[in-house]
Amino acid sequence: MDDSSVSHHNGGQVGSQIGVSVNNKQNEESSQSVQYSIPGILHFIQHEWARFELERSQWEVDRAEFEARIAFLQGQRKGQENLKNDLVRRIKMLEYALKQERAKFHKLKYGVELQQGDVRPPPEEPPTEPEPAEKAQWKQGRQLIKQYLQEIGYTDTILDVRSNRVRTLLGLNNEEQAEDPNYRNNDNKFRERCGDSPINSLIRKYDYGGKEQRKGGVSTGGGYNEEGLSVQETAAVFANFEFLANQEMDMDEIDDLDANKPHHAPPKQGEEVDNEAEEVLNVLNLLAESEADGGGQGDECPVGVVGGGVAAAAGGGEADEKPLALGELAQLTVSNEPEAYDVAGANKESFRKTWNAKYTLRSHFDGVRALAFHPTEAALVTASEDHTLKLWNLQRTVQAKKSAGLDVEPLYTFRAHTAPVLCLAMGLPRSEECFSGGLDGTIRVWNLPPPTADPYDPYDPAVQGPVLREHTDAVWSLACAHGRLLSASADGTARLWAPRAARPLLCTLRDDAITAPHAPAPAVAADFADGEAAAAVVYRDGTMLLYDLETTQSFLRIACDSPANRIRAHPTLPLLVSAHEDRHIRFWDLGSGRCAHAMVAHLDAVTGLALDPNGLFLLSGSHDCSVRLWNLDTKTCVQEITAHRKKFDESILDVAFHPLRPYIASAGADGLAKVFV
Amino acid sequence: MADGTQILRRNQPGSRAKDFCRWPDEPFEEMDSTLAVQQFIQQTIRRDPANLEAILKMPEAQDEGVWKYEHLRQFCMELNGLAVRLQSECKPETCTQMTATEQWIFLCAAHKTPKECPAIDYTRHTLDGAACLLNSNKYFPSRVSIKESSVAKLGSVCRRVYRIFSHAYFHHRAIFDAFEKETHLCKRFTYFVTKYSIISKEILILPKLDDETPIAQTIGESEA
């Protein structure tokens, strides 16, 4: 059977072969007649056929290879094109961001119009940039980028092209292309590259690339550099990027995992990978990591370097995983951008050297005793001797005066105290509550109306929360931390409250050293210290006591010549800062109880103290009508602002930092509160 | 508080309630603050809230516009106390409209188109509106001199503010009496507006000190 089929198939050839032989009849006969030659012929034919088959399959393999190569090159081209579009879009976006940033900066600097959330529609102010539209446009832009990043991440299997993209980015493309023809497949490509170029130069290249990336990262942060801002601001931008990098660490870890593969993959494939290549990979990883630490915004690209290396080394097998990872990464980057924007703004502001008066809050009929910013919003509450508290939304300015300042009308007036309101504390973020203490001895809990409320809405009794009445005299100080409230009163006690509990009074802190016949000195001020485990209370006689809040016993007593008006705990260090009637600000070491530093800070009694949330700056207010900003590190005055007029012998009664946003504020006996930006 | 020769008139943190603002009077001539008039008025009231003559006796060479303005500020501020008391009793369900006698329904002018707010809302909105107007940088940019055109604004504030007294008097008499006993605010206000002829006598519907009969009103709605 086998034989016949062979003879049928290869009749022509057989014929020619046997033409030499003696018998010239039919195939069968000749095969029978030429005894010797037939097996030989068959063998020969079989051998030849097998050879041709082999060749054919080889050609087919070659063809497949070339096809793959064509596909690869086409993919590469597509990738280049995408990259080009991508970069063009990026440039456009950055230009736009820069423009926006400049506009914003201009506005902040010259105080034309700050907030996008302003009620006033933009068309009223044609000369300025359309601020309210900004957000929408940003959103649109982000959407667009997200879209195209997804497109790149998901639709193309051009992940091995990533390396090229990056090299293009780094200006190394020509070299790459010169090497191109040498490649047989991806494995070789990587090996050859490592082999061809000395490690050092490679490292240099990638190092260079890293720098380039970093530069790119900075320029993403808007036009700060171009606007000639200080090193500090740049540092702020970097700080912001560090924050970003932290968030992206997860992604980097994923990529590191992928990046580990090339160490093992090439040996598995039986290719010889010399030590050099390994080293190069290590260097790449290192670079990528350092990039992730310091580079921030440019993270996508260094990852691309590693990812590209992976794809090149391990071949197409990776292609399925990588798009996903990068897709996620892309999303991550995009979703981070608005935050980056905000934080960059905030940092930039807080590092700014000069604060300028921007808003004047006039609506109180008498001196403003205390103020506190909303934990997140551009809003604040003021407490006044006219028995009311008022809520202000800085994003709803009512009338822009010709001069620099903006007037704000109060959003809400809190009425319930029957005497001057003396102190104020803001609740936790999102709790939307605040607490006030008054000369009437009550502490009141308030539910803040939403920032969109209309001042002339119907009266809602739900704004009033519980009332804490245990104090028997004026409540002069309130501090709030994690839902607990600390109050200091002229009745000589400090009390700890859980304001909304059924039994709100948690404990009463008394000075045990004072025995019955003597009335305790009035408590002036109190603040949480030592991570809310302790309370620092100052008294009118100059004593300062630290209470353990677990045992309610005092564990440290500090005596000072001059009574303090305010006490504040440093947000990060074991340090207390007190403002004194004798014009001093004193710093106390929480561990030893020693005075770490004392300075004459004002020309008159120091009345207000506030520390910025990072603990770098101190704000003080005094009856000498000035607000001073201090660098806590050097204890030097950074800025002085004359802010309020005198009523009798009182002037500034309180100062505050916004916990998140770049606002500071002062409250004065003249019935005004001022906000500086 | 006295520091040798120098008297510091300030409320130090930690002061007891009874010591609040308890410092020796300062002669008006020696007050050099821009808030001198307010200081003087508050000082006189603190001395004796019932002594209307003394409180409303304008110092010589004082600008009358500023004097009236500062007094009105003080009235609005002290009216917060009445509003606080009313908040606990004057509910939108019971006092659905701002009325005093049955003859008038007062419309709340705080809105774009005056509307019939419940009494408590009218009270709050009127006080909030007055606070805004009296602190307006446009009309009252200074507290030492006031334009004539701005002084004219005081009249409408006074008219509205008076309705708060009258509502409390006719609908929440207990609150009104308790408040009046403590502050003499309505008496002082009536004396003030009469003395400076800020609002016409016909509008003063409350029986005055010695049970004057209120002047009859025509039925209708007042312009807010």
Q: Can you give a write-up of this model?
A:
The complex is a heterodimer of chains A (677) and B (224). With 677 residues, chain A is of the alpha+beta class. In chain A, 41% of the residues lie in helices and 26% in strands. Among the domains of chain A are: 63-104; 357-676, Methylamine Dehydrogenase, Chain H, CATH 2.130.10.10. Chain A contains 13 helices and 28 strands. Chain A is elongated, with a radius of gyration of 38 Å. Residues 1-26, 114-130, 154-160, 172-274 and 287-350 of chain A have low confidence and may be disordered. With 224 residues, chain B is mainly α. Chain B is globular and about 55 Å long. A two-stranded antiparallel ribbon of chain B has the order 1-2. Chain B has 8 helices and 4 strands. Residues 209-224 of chain B have low confidence and may be disordered. The interface between A and B is large, with 58 and 47 residues.
Largest sheet of chain B: 2 strands, antiparallel
The count of strands of chain B amounts to 4
Number of strands of chain A: 28
Uncertain regions spanning at least 5 consecutive residues of chain B = 209-224
Mean pLDDT of chain B comes to 83
CATH architecture of the domain at 72-203 in chain B: Up-down Bundle
Distance between the termini of chain A: 99 Å
The CATH topology of the domain at 72-203 in chain B is: Butyryl-CoA Dehydrogenase, subunit A, domain 3
* CATH uppermost class of the domain at 357-676 in chain A: Mainly Beta
CATH superfamily membership of the domain at 72-203 in chain B: MOB kinase activator
**β content of chain A, as a range?**
25-35%
Largest interface by residue count? A-B, 58 and 47 residues
